[in-house]
Design goal:
Elements lengths: L2 H8 L9 H13 L5 H8 L3 H54 L1
Helix pairs in contact: 3-4
Length: 103
């Protein structure tokens, strides 16, 4: 192995992996307002501030996506409920009509 090859292998960046529970905990603590800045929170938990910023960005994007999906689901359920109420009213009127015809 030449000197160039050995120096390249030494310069590799090793990325540290964090458990999902740890990431969620750090995001939760930061969002609770315990720390005034991302940097303070990152230092307290021993992560780089860019790492924490990345986690927060992904969390916010997922939150917006989840919120949009929830709003879509709520809208669909409201339409479904409205339809069910209308059908119930029709059935009530039909039962009254047929009950009066049976007499």
């Amino acid at each position: 192995m030449s000197n160039l090859e050995s120096s390249n292998s030494l310069n590799r960046v090793v990325r540290k992996r964090y458990a999902l529970e740890f990431i969620q905990q750090v995001i939760g603590v930061y969002n609770s307002g315990v720390y005034a800045t991302i940097e303070e929170c990152a230092i307290a938990y021993g992560v780089h501030k860019k790492t924490l910023s990345g986690w927060l960005d992904r969390y916010r994007k997922n939150s917006v996506s989840d919120s949009l999906q929830q709003q879509t689901e709520i809208s669909r359920l409201k339409k479904e409920l409205s339809q069910a109420k209308m059908e119930l009213e029709i059935l009530k009127k039909a039962s009254i009509y047929f009950a009066s015809q049976a007499r």
